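Table S7 (text form). Paired inputs.
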Amino acid sequence: MIHTKLDFVMLEKGVSGKELAEKIGITPANLSILKTGKAKGIRFSTLNKICEVLDCQPGDILTYQSDE
């Protein structure tokens, strides 16, 4: 299962949810879905924008953990 560490990276970088949502062009509600791990998927273009704004790599915000 894929887990998100987006909250931690945002906190580390000092970026608020509202600020990140505005900069990447999504609604705060959709950002919340990403942060809580309830999203079924993410577009590469959105992931690219998140990484640009937070100056990070995809592996910094997404992790894989076996369901076992």
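Next pair, protein 2 of 2.
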Amino acid sequence: MTGTPALGAQELDQPHDLVGIGIGPFNLSLAALADGVHGGLATAFFEQRPVFRWHPGLLIEGSTLQVPFLADLVTLVDPASPWSFLNYLRSRDRLFPFYFAERFHIQRAEYDAYCRWVSDSLTGLYFGHQVDAVRWNPERSLFEVDFTQLDADGEVEALGRAYSRNIVLGVGTEPYVPEPLRPLAEAPTVPVFHSADYLDHRERILAAEHITVIGSGQSGAEVFLDLLRARPVGAEKIHWLARTDAFAPMEYSKLGLEHFTPDYTRYFHALPEQTRDTLVSRQWQLHKGIDADTIAAIHEELYRRTLHGGWPDAVLTPGVSVRTAGRVATTKVELHLEHAEQATRSRLTTDAVVLATGYQERPLHRMLAGLDPYLRKDSAGRARIDDQFRLVLDRSVTGSAYVQNAERHTHGVGAPDLGLAAWRSASILNSLTGKEPYPLPHRTAFTSFGLSREQARPAHAPPSLLPLVERS
């Protein structure tokens, strides 16, 4: 296992300043920036997986990030950090090749390798440690974090408990499987897989006579393109279905991208709950559309297959939802489809299904059951999260519980965006320390999202001491 060796008994009893739960890119960003805080912070980050991996099932050859390389773990708040992507390249003697490649968007596999370099180098990261429960101990004024240490095979090796003044939840998301397809996805004999596991099952999928891809986002497009390139001309036998009205490009205009700035995040957080909920559903094209280059590559591949006459045996149909699904014979799948605009229904028999149906926030109720009496919730029963990314807890809890990528309902479409990772991590560290180890910009967008004027924050004032906006 990579990372730091298991915690010793003395370390376990010694309270930490911050314990992180989960080591994905966001908590890895926080750990990297915490490493640079002057005076030092006592931190520990726990992850149940044995090593860092970032969407391994979707590291399709040639696929790129949808954000520039500057959206690494640290650069947008600390360009001089030793944990930057450019320093990673330098450590691998690859700066000049990268310079001549002139690539603003790097490959996903390279981003995964960069993050693993950071995770292998930082101290205080404990892989193979599964967090089981979090509680508040009022007598000690500390959070208790119970964990299970796992061996290389995932078997229980030891139980432990860590104490911390503050915690941060960065457990990420999990694949979302629509209800009609869950029984099939859970059946081992039926080839129905989520795109998160695509590469693990790629050969089995390609061996199927007919393949169906469901989902109109970037993952669906990349899987469809990869399958299309691997199938014989004229015998592709692929269906690509989507609920959206079109296979739409992601909003990538310069001003459209300003929805992924701290300015918009602060604006969104100050809106009423009902308004925020309405906005999130309307803004799907900001984060669920398809990269324009991928759309172009798909069209080019389809066009190339018409050069000698005929059309490829590939069907691309938007506006379609799967009502129900079932097994036919032993391994075939029958999808019952409905077209919204035509108000028509049909059936499709296929041999393999790839569900590019996105991700959902991991449920935290089991892990946070011990905090439930202290947790304040909104009208929909979701955790309330303040402007500093803290769960709103009862005043008797003197520590802070921060969240990363679990706050879309309070902070908007930028919650899962890698481009805001460093800024959010720095905001958490500024809040936690009550200082400004990482001075943050007062303005980040040309767009003024509301009529109320945002109030600039004095250079050294803790963010918690100032109102978010000034209203007339």
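The mean pLDDT is 92.
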